Amino acid sequence: MKTVCVATGLGFAALAVAPAFAGGPVIPAPEPVVMPALAPPAPPPTFAGGYVGADIGYAFGGDDQVGAIPLDRDLGTLELSGPIGNIHAGYRWQQPGSRIVYGVEGMVSLGDVGDDVSRDGFDSSSEMKWTATIRGNLGYAVRPDTLVYGFGGYTVGKSEYWIVGAGDVLQEDRDTDGYVVGLGAEKMLNDKWSVRAEYEYSNFGSEEAEARNGTFTTRDTPEYHTLRAGVNFRF
Asked: Residue 108 falls within a domain, yes or no?
């Protein structure tokens, strides 16, 4: 009888201990780590699209040699210079992944660009009242936010030209036209605003003008260089 009881007790003890030895200690499984979704990379900046802007600058280096024909007089040189400002608007194209940027721009300029000279009893003066220009631009984005470019185009304007001397007066309000060429650089500040700087050469050709009484004639040949800086707003 004792033997049966001992055997039964050992059996129950074995059943109680068996689960602990069967698989060892139970370690809780860690919670899965959920990685946050990565935001897509921002698209690189582009110069494509429409824009408006304004510039201020200074015109200099004009070289209009004044003569009186047939009096054979050298009346000096009109060195056109002065402050100048403009408003402009344009549109540019830039293909995805390309650094080439091209476009068209229109500009209206106002200022006080002129000069006067006195020599040999003659007083001469010239002043460019305003100009309007249409030009094509071609550039290269040296960095995603920095553009260097060249341009060339057609310009029209209004000039005032005077020569007084030899008992006669030459006075002409001339409708001018000619060409412009130049270079520029533009730097983006953000996705809307940018700053730019330009050099431009303007040439308005040559036109003969005659004094009221026919005493003398001359040739009006206005030209000048311009340095300017301004801002663009892209939309």
From this structure: yes
CATH number of the domain where residue 141 is located: 2.40.160.20
* Residue 1 belongs to some domain of the structure: no
**173 assigned to some structural domain:** yes
Predicted TM-score of the model (pTM): 0.80
User: What is the number of domains present in the chain?
Assistant: 1
- The pair phi, psi for residue 55, each rounded to 5°, is -135, 155
Backbone angles phi, psi at 150, to 5 degrees: -120, 160
Specify the pLDDT at position 21: 46
Domain of 59?
50-234
**Averaged in consecutive runs of 10 residues, what is the pLDDT profile of the chain (235 residues)?**
48 47 58 66 77 98 87 87 98 95 98 94 94 98 97 96 93 93 98 97 92 91 96 96
Q: Looking at residue 44, what is its pLDDT? A: 64
